[in-house]
Amino acid sequence: MIGFFIQRILQALLVIIAMSVIVFVGVYAIGNPIDVMIDPASDQALREALIQRYGFDRPLIEQYFIFMGNMLRGDLGESFIYRLPVIGLIFSRMPATLELAVSAMLIATLLGIPLGLWAGYKPDAISSKFIMGLSVLGFSVPTFWVGLLLIMAFAVELGWLPSGGRGPVTDFLGMKLSIGSMEGLSYIILPAFNLALFKLGLLIRLTRSGTVEVMSSDYVRFARAQGLSERKVVGLHVLKNISIPIVTVFGLELGSTLAFAVVTETVFNWPGMGKLIIDSITVLDRPVMVAYLILVVFLFVLINLVVDLIYGQLDPRIRVRAAS
Amino acid sequence: MSEPVLRVKDLRTEFAVRAGIVKAVDGVTFEVGRGRILGLVGESGSGKSVTGYSILGLIELPGRIAGGEVLLNGVDLTKLKGEQIRRVRGAQIAMVFQDPMMTLNPVLKVSTQMIAAVRAHDNVSRKVARSRARDALATVGIPSPEERLDAYPHQLSGGMRQRVAIAIALLHKPAVIIADEPTTALDVSIQGQILAEVRRLADETGTAFVWVTHDLAVVSSLADDICVMYAGRVVETGAAADVIASPRHPYTAGLLASVPAEHEPGERLPQVPGSAPSLANLPPGCAFAPRCFKAGPACNTTPPVQHFEDGRTALCHYPIEPDSCQPLSSTSTTYQNAS
């Protein structure tokens, strides 16, 4: 088990290093941030001074090693634009994205798994066909468009929910969260549901196909021959067997939602990390981009590690393979 | 023979497929007495497994039981619905399947599956259920049952898994166990052990077995009675020893002739010519006629059930006469010539 961990952490380090090189070189190739940062009318002397101050005159490789050296000391640098430490900048935006992503995953899971189970348990029922139709819409209709429709319907026409922004936040474990108060909650419902739609469609289909497969298996037939109730058959045999693909997709989706909730955040004007990264890319704010992507890699590695550990709990055959 | 515990009367199971209605089981009738083992023999597609599933009401759409009765201690199982049939399954009549690799859920411990099976019918604590599971494992000859309970199916050998499946079937001491080719996927040596175990269980516990198989060698060493099926119909019944010694139906004779053990090594093995007909497209009259060496003009019409001494029956216009006393070798010659 410890060997497994060490292997995973080494892999993660390699990914982080490779990723930082790619981003660093990529951003360098795009252009000189100075051109974006300063007033085009300013004179050459000021330009030179700034280039020197940020170290853009040094060779790329040197700039890279200075950056990585600082990172090892826990200093990811300062944003060119905000003049704030990057770490603080990202972490100030993180709770917003975190609560949005987690709420979306909760909605998708709590709705998707029961609906998928039903659609797989009674594949020929009208209700199941309706569910499957919805799931196709869920992941084929563009997110931003659904978002706009949601705003039109619930904020503009009905006036039930706010159209955007984050609303009041309350303090929870040092993080500022919206979900602490009823009013804050009303702000998160629409964006969370919008973000959940794609995952909902995915989870419904995944759960359904797993259920159909398990329901036709010999061990389900054997369980029925033992006189197990249908509730027990589904609750014990089906749920346990379909959980592995579900956990995989859940992990992947949680990671990508945290990292790339950009579209929904933009539509609903939600002040999360997605908006931060998009803004940084427009102005070539290199420290923010690199730090953000390193954080994303770290998140993915962490989520995958947890998913792998859960696998072992769910399927004993994987434990055996890992041990041998 | 005492009053039979299981009596299947004129059972009909149909599947509605694109090609029409397939009569997988077409008027099957047989009975099994307490502690007796009935060998239900036939080729692939003869309807023997579907008969087993029909008895437990495990037929799923597009299949359905179209008629007949399954009387378990006088109660017609085909009339039971939902919760009523669930209470019978596993408690009064149980089933063991062909492939022990597939019948146990790979991600659940043996104990989890056995405890669920106990608690499906008896409202007992997990602890009591576990000790009953352990006893059942011991009954089927599993060494150190306590440790096996905590194993996952993949940690057990095929023979061990099939014993676990049989132990699960035995948990509620059912009157009847339907065994659907349970030893087909196992080594011959393991098969022998399990057959001996089943024979002992039938004698000691009084459980009746319906042993579905295509393997006549298994039937001859295990079963008290034989019921031979062909294309969804029962073509011959009788005491196992009698049927094997002198088959009355030409199909049974052909099956027996093709058992390798009866022949010299290197000798060409006789076989029943042709292959089993598609159930969707059966010939009129006797379904076996096109492959039969005794087929005559009457075979275009539905054959009658002929009754013989010792309660034997055969579904045939021209049954083999015991007087002519055809030894197996002559039957096999007949089939060789026919092929």
From TrEMBL, chain A:
Protein name, per record: ABC transporter permease
Primary site of residence: membrane
The species this protein was found in: Microvirga brassicacearum
Location(s) in or outside the cell: Cell membrane
Organism placement in taxonomy: Bacteria, Pseudomonadati, Pseudomonadota, Alphaproteobacteria, Hyphomicrobiales
PROSITE patterns in alphabetical order: ABC_TM1
Domain of life according to the entry: Bacteria
Ranges where the ABC transmembrane type-1 domain occurs: 94-311
Sequence intervals crossing the membrane: 12-31, 100-118, 130-156, 185-206, 242-263, 289-311
Single GO BP term: transmembrane transport
A cellular component term, taken from the record's GO annotations: plasma membrane
InterPro entries: BPD_transp_1_N, MetI-like, MetI-like_sf
Sorted UniProt keywords: Cell membrane, Membrane, Transmembrane, Transmembrane helix, Transport
Membrane topology designation: Multi-pass membrane protein
Pfam families from the UniProt entry: BPD_transp_1, BPD_transp_1_N
Transmembrane recorded as keyword: yes
Family indicated by similarity: Belongs to the binding-protein-dependent transport system permease family.
From TrEMBL, chain B:
Gene Ontology cellular-component terms listed: plasma membrane
Name recorded for this polypeptide: ABC transporter ATP-binding protein
Localization of this protein: Cell inner membrane
Topology class, membrane: Peripheral membrane protein
Coiled-coil zones: none
Entry's Gene Ontology molecular function annotations: ATP binding; ATP hydrolysis activity
Cytoplasm in keyword set: no
Domain ABC transporter: 6-256
One Gene Ontology term from the biological process aspect of the record: transmembrane transport
Organism: Microvirga brassicacearum
Keywords on record: ATP-binding, Cell membrane, Membrane, Nucleotide-binding, Transport
Protein family according to the UniProt entry: Belongs to the ABC transporter superfamily.
